[in-house]
Amino acid sequence: MLEMIGIGDLHFGSSLSQHLPSTKLHDFIISEIQTVLGYAKRNGVRNIVFYGDISHTPHLDPDSLLVFLHLLESHPEFNFIVMTGNHDIADSGHHSLRVLQRVARSWMSHVKVISSPKTLKLQGQRVNVLPWPHTETQDDALNILHVEVKGSMWDTGRPTGGTLSVPKSHFCVAGHLHTAQVVGSVHFSGTLYQTNFAEKLPKYFHHIKYDHDNDIRQVKLVPHQPKYTLHNIIIKATADLEKIPSDPTALCKIFVKKGVDLDPSELSKRPNVVKFNSFQNKQELEVLINEDLYLEDDSATVQFDTRIMLKDWLKESKVQSDLAKRAIQLYDRITNQR
Predict the structure, then answer these.
(1) Hey, what CATH topology would domain 228-293 get?
(2) What residue ranges do the domains of the chain occupy?
(3) How many Å apart are CA 310 and CA 329, to the nearest integer?
(4) How confident is the model at residue 266 (pLDDT cuts 50, 70, 90)?
(5) What is the mean pLDDT of residues 250-256?
(6) Span 2-224: which CATH code?
(7) Residue 2 contacts by C-beta under 8 Å, 6 or more apart in sequence?
């Protein structure tokens, strides 16, 4: 039987780095991975797979590359599979793991960096590794994906619009989506930590058991508590200040409703408050809370969410129906031209 630990998108180099108060993002991520490796050792699991999106951009910064390389090199007791995700790949076809891939081929036999579909044999079982955007799943293998599927949800709770339907007999584990979920035969681990303030807790990683001949297909979502957690705190009255946690590792964005009489010094006393916003209505609050997702999601997702918010705003503002209809038509025409 094959046992494997599955770790979701790492996103070295993401914008979260600007909010961490006393550590560098790459050191924080490495520390989170080390916790998972400790679990693997205690449970006798030797195979570790990273589900893609190792880097937030196709150009992994040197410091992140060095610390990740050192982590892999320091643990020859594990077999590592590192695959590319959509954030890792540039339009030119270059990807963030090119250097790591060459190093692994030369002198780290326990590390496989996979940027194109490849079927491996681990502990007598077939493992079908499908980096983004490949989706050619198989019946007689453990399939590893990095893509949304039909019926999956974004971190906002809205449908991804994915069109891939995976046959029930094709057992899959996957990255790409940051919120843990199971859609048919596809198991998404979510991320080890909140990569932005729009993501919710709790966080997990996968403990997988697979044996095709004996029909063993198990995925356990193992809870993971990251060192830093991210919180959106909505202040509609001064009494709501009590909602702000005192734990310095609980980083907070504060959203204050306009009109609330709030002494700015109250927030400056709290080192875990990393950003302050004011809002006027429900729609404006939604935009502010989800701003990280709107900046980072695929353009189709941004357009989908923005269209809904535009319709909500037109309705709340009681815009005449014919004018509202024209506004939506103009929006659709503009976005389709892009």
Answers:
(1) Double Stranded RNA Binding Domain (3.30.160)
(2) 2-224, 228-293, 298-338
(3) 11
(4) confident
(5) 93
(6) 3.60.21.10
(7) 47, 122, 123, 124, 125, 127, 142, 208, 209, 210, 211
